TrEMBL record, chain B:
InterPro entries: 6-blade_b-propeller_TolB-like (IPR011042), Cu-Rt/internalin_Ig-like (IPR014755), DUF7133 (IPR055557), Quinoprot_gluc/sorb_DH_b-prop (IPR011041)
Highest taxon, organism lineage: Bacteria
Gene3D superfamilies noted in UniProt: 2.60.40.1220, TolB, C-terminal domain (2.120.10.30)
Segments forming domain DUF7133: 74-361
Cell membrane in keyword set: no
Protein name: DUF7133 domain-containing protein
Signal peptide per UniProt: 1-20
Keywords associated with the record: Signal
Length: 382, 502
């Protein structure tokens, strides 16, 4: 399954390359360019032979306006800046400056519009940039046409003529990603000005949670997702915390990717009840305080303050949840799906009544629940 | 022969080098790069100055960091925040940060220089999980109210299976509007007021991407908005309570809104509901993505533009300056580049004045065009030759300059090229570029008279006609001051909403 997944992009890349290099019966090199979200041409480089007839077909597959200019070698930035200098003349000129540095151009296209350019490739070998000069786009939205008899291109990751982000294109990087999957515990580069030593957290978009989720990395390779939208622990996993790569690109929907295996999910309607064991309380998130770097969440249940601190079980096989309800004046219940959870609970106080831990107000002021995950215990034994 | 050539080159070098240095020394403003902490992806979401003069900045991957300009050292203050896009210093140990899920008060309570308390100030607004629901602010008024702004969602993204807040499908036109920005959770597209008791109140609607809030010295609230599927070019709004500013999606969160599709309203009905922008930033000409407006409160430390607004621009190396005047009871006015081509980068997202009067600029790209890092613009004490104000008269405009101008040049009508155009308020046709922006009725406007004041600082220009609802774009020629300093910026756009005699 994984192999196929990895082969598909390669196959796609190969097909695309074949299509790009397609030499029609009439000897015309046909090139098809589209736009990807985030101000990028889908194809950032191709080769043609000197003097070849080229038909470049450009379709604007984005929701913004784009043009396309092919410039003399080394003249991309000069042309981008000349387009900016057009100022009030820019819109009427499609942001195409009158300059001998511009060899060919496609005017501004609306979404889903296609226009073609037919030209004879330069006789002089070189790297001929293509770029969108709509104001602001030209600094990131570009590619390169290599003209040479041998059809040569530099190595993708060292190609200075394509946007830096594309040098690490997944297609070219397939081999490296194989390695990555083999070592699933390996953490992606976080790019912070400090070392990320557990415990630490990210407020971030996560699967199976509200959009106000908090991912917390604990020692012992444990992590959990606490949801500030609904004031509860959602799930916990063992492994390497999260990969935020997709999120940190910006400009598209994404969630943090969990690295590891989820060993616990809270499947109750809501775990804590106040006064009435069957009534789901109204919750309000208040914030958190760091207690020796561990977040202690603060929220209210029907207006009563609750503090929840989650620590790793020292043997790495579960979580230690410390609750404080300093103003508890009614009985408090903690609900669990004991019959369909592979988790054992050890409570510092209270009595189990069916599937709920029952605590009197005195006990509810401070209690601890130790949750041991049977799958983790089992996998350790193995 | 060779030696002679070399000697000539050496002489040429010195001849050219001396005036170049001299010219640099005479520049009114210079741009400096601030060294950024190692390992930081410096996508700047917000900057402000602490009372003790240190800079506090938040970055999109969740860090809040403090920079000491004296030691040039960065320290970490807080971490783990969700796309923070605004920061306000409260004290040397406390800041407010606008992050994705909430407005948060972050405090260092044990004095170790690092935050330990993250308190929610308000999260009383919806999240659909769409990547484009950015949140901006806060700014504070004189009564202690905070203002934040909530971005609409992008049709390029989705609503997550689990959301926060009430869902209202009328905030998105599913009949024909799949390409429009939308607001299916409260209060997307709104500017909100947080009263000192922590309660969140809907304040004004009709925004698309209000990436910038600021007050002027008189306490007027301004918000910039991005060019959009309804308003054809980017705007500076003078925001007042209860007003609607043009993007219909947010109307569904007005508590008096009937259960109907705001997208289906005839354009003239929306037009009547709408408050126009005080200033339009012509797309592709002045700015494509204006950001935070910041009033010059430096009392001259930053040069001659006291009380005017400086506005970041994301798409190029530009800060825009805005000068406003009250006409017919409403603010309107002109925009002009403030700094181009001086080494400022793109992605100019956040602005703050340092105690020394320098203007600090935080930059961002985050998947769009832009740059990373923080720069600082310093006024060197040499006054620029620049337009100071552009004001409307009964039959044209008065341009006042920061310096007395060269008389011959100033009196030459060829140095003033006016044209006008307008932007129609309309629903964008499907498959039209989201950033497509049409200037309509583009026409040159003839100059019928020029007068220079006796102090040579004000030029009064008479025009053949003045039409309300138009942008009056003025391209200035080779003007220079009496002392020979060339004019710093030559393109100026006045948004003429109202005539003087109306």
């Amino acid at each position: 399954m994984f192999l196929i997944k990895r082969l598909i992009p390669l196959l796609f890349f190969f097909l695309q390359a074949m299509q790009l290099m397609a030499q029609g019966n009439d000897g015309v090199t046909e090139v098809t360019l589209k736009v990807m979200p985030g101000l990028q041409f889908d194809v950032v480089r191709f080769t043609v032979k000197p003097g070849a007839l080229v038909k470049l077909s450009f379709t604007n597959t984005d929701d913004m306006s784009h043009n396309l200019l092919i410039t003399k070698p080394g003249k991309r930035l000069a042309v981008v800046n000349a387009a900016l200098q057009l100022e009030e003349k820019g819109p009427a000129m499609n942001y195409i400056p009158k300059s001998s540095d511009v060899l060919w151009s496609v005017p501004i296209l609306s979404p889903e519009q296609t226009k073609s350019l037919s030209f004879k490739a330069p006789l002089q070998a070189g790297a001929y940039p293509y770029v969108c000069t709509y104001p602001g786009h030209g600094f990131v939205m570009y590619g390169v046409m290599y003209v040479n008899a041998e059809g040569k291109m530099p190595e993708l990751k060292n190609d200075p003529n394509i946007p830096p982000a594309r040098q690490e294109d997944k297609l070219a990087d397939a081999g490296k990603h194989d390695m990555h999957h083999a070592h699933q515990q390996e953490m992606p580069k976080a790019d912070h000005p400090y070392a990320t030593v557990p415990p630490y957290l990210y407020r971030i978009f996560m699967e199976d949670a509200s959009p106000a989720a908090i991912a917390v990395s604990l020692p012992q390779n444990l992590s959990y997702c606490w949801d500030a939208g609904v004031c509860r622990l959602r799930y916990a996993w063992k492994g390497g915390f999260v990969d935020n790569t997709a999120l940190w690109k910006g400009h598209a929907d994404a969630t943090a990717k969990i690295i590891g295996t989820i060993f616990y999910r809270d499947k109750t309607t809501y775990p804590l009840r106040v006064g009435d064991p069957d009534a789901i309380p109204v919750t309000e998130y208040k914030g958190y305080r760091l207690v020796e770097k561990y977040p202690e969440f603060h929220y209210t249940l029907n207006g009563i303050d609750v503090y929840e601190l989650i620590l790793p079980k020292e043997d790495g096989k579960g979580l230690v949840r410390k609750f404080r309800i300093p103003d508890a004046n009614k009985e408090v219940w903690f609900a669990a799906n004991l019959h369909d959870e592979a988790v054992t609970y050890e409570a510092s106080a209270g009595n189990w009544d069916h599937e709920k831990l029952r605590l009197n107000p005195q006990q509810a002021r401070e209690f601890t629940l130790i949750m041991t995950s049977y799958p983790l215990v089992y996998s350790r034994k193995k | 022969m060779k030696l002679k050539t070399l000697a000539c080159l050496v002489i040429l070098f010195f001849i050219s080098a001396v005036p170049a240095d001299d010219k640099k020394a005479k520049e009114a403003y210079t741009v400096e790069n601030i060294p950024m902490p190692e390992g930081l992806t410096s996508e700047t979401g917000g900057i402000d100055f602490l009372p003790d003069g240190r800079l506090v900045a938040c970055f999109i991957r969740g860090e809040v960091m403090i920079y000491n300009p004296k030691s040039r050292q960065w320290t970490l203050f807080a971490e783990g925040l969700h796309e923070p896009l605004g920061i306000m210093a409260v004290s040397n140990s406390e800041v407010l940060v606008m992050q994705r899920p909430e407005l948060t008060r972050i405090k260092d309570t044990d004095g170790d220089g690092k935050a330990d308390v993250y308190e929610k100030v308000t999260d009383d607004f919806g999240l659909s999980g769409n990547y484009h629901e950015f949140n901006y602010g806060p700014v504070k008024d004189k009564k202690g109210n905070l203002f934040i702004a909530l971005n609409t969602a992008s049709p390029g993204g989705a609503v997550r299976p689990e959301i926060r807040g009430k869902f209202n499908p009328l905030g998105r036109d599913l009949q024909t509007g799949l390409y429009e920005m939308y607001a299916v959770v409260p209060y997307r597209g709104w500017v909100m007021k947080v009263t000192p008791d922590g309660k969140l109140h809907p304040y004004a609607s009709g925004m698309r991407s209000p990436n910038g809030l600021g007050f002027d010295q008189e306490g007027n609230l301004f918000v910039t908005d991005n060019q959009s599927d309804w308003v054809e070019t980017s705007t500076l709004y003078h925001v007042k309570e209860g007003n609607f500013y043009g993007h219909p999606a947010s109307l569904v969160w007005n508590k008096n809104w009937p259960a109907k599709n705001p997208f289906a309203l005839p354009i003239n009905e929306l037009e009547q509901l709408r408050t126009k922008a005080a200033v339009l930033f012509p797309q592709g000409i002045m700015a494509n993505s204006p950001s935070q407006p910041l009033c010059d409160v430096t009392a001259g430390k930053f040069g001659p533009f006291k009380g005017q607004l400086f506005i970041g621009e994301m798409n190029r190396d530009r800060i825009v300056r805005v000068m406003l005047e009250k006409v017919g009871g409403e603010l309107q006015g002109a925009c002009i580049p403030f700094i181009d081509g001086h080494g400022l980068r793109k992605g100019n997202n956040r602005l703050a004045f340092a105690p020394d009067g320098s203007l600090w600029v935080g930059q961002i790209a985050f998947g769009w065009s832009g740059d990373l890092g923080i720069q600082r613009i310093v006024y060197n004490g040499t006054p620029p030759a620049d337009v100071y104000t552009m004001t409307l008269t009964k039959d044209g405009f008065d341009l006042s300059f920061t310096q007395p101008m060269n008389k011959t040049e100033a009196m030459n009508p060829d140095n003033y090229k006016f044209r006008h155009y307008y932007y129609k308020y309309q629903r964008k046709a499907k498959n039209e570029g989201a950033d497509n922006s049409r200037q309509l009725d583009v026409q040159d406007v003839a100059i019928t008279g020029i007068k220079l004041s006796s102090d040579q600082k004000k030029v009064s220009i008479k025009l053949s006609a003045l039409k309300p609802g138009y942008v009056y774009e003025l391209k200035l020629g080779n003007l220079s001051s009496k002392e020979g300093t060339p004019l710093a910026n030559k393109l100026i756009c006045y948004t003429l909403n109202k005539l003087l005699n109306n």
